[in-house]
Amino acid sequence: MGENHRDSQGRPIVAVTGLGIVTSLGQGKDANWEALTAGRSGIHRIERFPTDGLRTTIAATVDFLFDGSFAAPELSEKLATLAAEEAVAQSGLGVNGDFPGELFMAVPPVEMEWPQKQELAQAVEGETDYDALLRVAARHKHKAMHELFLFGGVAEHIAEKFGTKGSPISLSTACSSGATAIQMGVEAIRRGETEAALCIGTDGSVHAEALIRFSLLSALSTQNDPPEGSAKPFSKNRDGFVMGEGAGALVLEDYDHALARGATILGIVAGCGERGDGFHRTRSSPDGKPAILAMQDALADAGLTPDDVDYINAHGTSTPENDKMEAMSCSAVFGERMARLPISSNKSMLGHTLTAAGAVEAVISLLTIANGRIPPTINYNTPDPAIALDVIPNEARDAKVRTVLSNSFGFGGQNTCLVLTAGPNAA
């Protein structure tokens, strides 16, 4: 290999030098990896707000950080901060609050919650529509509240804490947001715009209004008892996803930049694929075409073929429609090999961390490569005969994994797939 390391398309190779994660299973890579490979669930009964009369009363909330006063943006920022601290510390890059690269951050859609709406409504004369509440919030008396619910606020605070360069990018592409943040970091490095990027997906938005909205869409599981048995991806008796909270952070670098400073290379983001469709606001296209194309695009971007993939980290939400669509789409890409290609869903234990999911699952995918062990799909007790997949049922499995395809398929037709590979010195 020459002095300048390039991929098959002549672009800078994008290395991963830092990983950080916080979920309902705990804080940090060690706590999460131990729990995931043990098949433990972080889903439990909701205690932070009353659930009387609600059809869904469970979630994978990060209660060990929640002090009772956090609004969703505040908890999302706390989660992001902890994940980023772990990733930056591992990378050894910019540990003194002077990160030499850009910030790409997936954050949940920000909207005032009921307590704030009630407070502001008392100050509104006449119409109490959302725009009127925003105008009241913008007045000096409520300036802090107004700033709290600005969409770019969380990323601005993270950029200030870590000293990232340029204008921080806030993005929201529904359930694929975390993967999109990584894709944007990869593309910036490939274009030579930056030698490093801090990519984060975060979501701390389990509150009553959000839960009710997803419930009204008939998207959530109502199998509340026992809570840890509710999320059952690819099972015949699956009935919806479970809301979760968490954050995943990755430090990406130009491979040569990382090599020059003697960094440990944890893996490579070899390929990204993204496809959108306007089929429906919440439903996936029933023919799976956008998901199929996103997977094929990611593999082509990595210069790999379907035969090179050792494991698929599934989107695997546990909704009847998504799991069927994903299984069909994977079969279209991988053919007969799909019956024996390992695929599992972290969401069976973490719930669906929504905006954070793509980043959280990318971190777990790289841990899978590093440890040679695949986390299971738990609660797989009633197989769906229409989904003939090797879902790593109920117990983790040792396996040599060098290449992972991580899928993220979001509401509104957002589909993002990442190909993650072992570093060049991996055994």
From TrEMBL:
GO biological process: fatty acid biosynthetic process
Ketosynthase family 3 (KS3) domain boundaries: 11-422
Pathways involved: Lipid metabolism; fatty acid biosynthesis
GO CC terms in record: cytosol
Superkingdom of source: Bacteria
Any one GO MF annotation of this record: 3-oxoacyl-[acyl-carrier-protein] synthase activity
Entry keywords, A to Z: Transferase
ATP-binding keyword on record: no
InterPro entries assigned: Beta-ketoacyl_synthase, Ketoacyl_synth_AS, Ketoacyl_synth_C, Ketoacyl_synth_N, PKS_Beta-ketoAc_synthase_dom, Thiolase-like
Stated family: Belongs to the thiolase-like superfamily. Beta-ketoacyl-ACP synthases family.
Descriptive protein name: 3-oxoacyl-[acyl-carrier-protein] synthase II
UniProt organism field: Bosea lupini
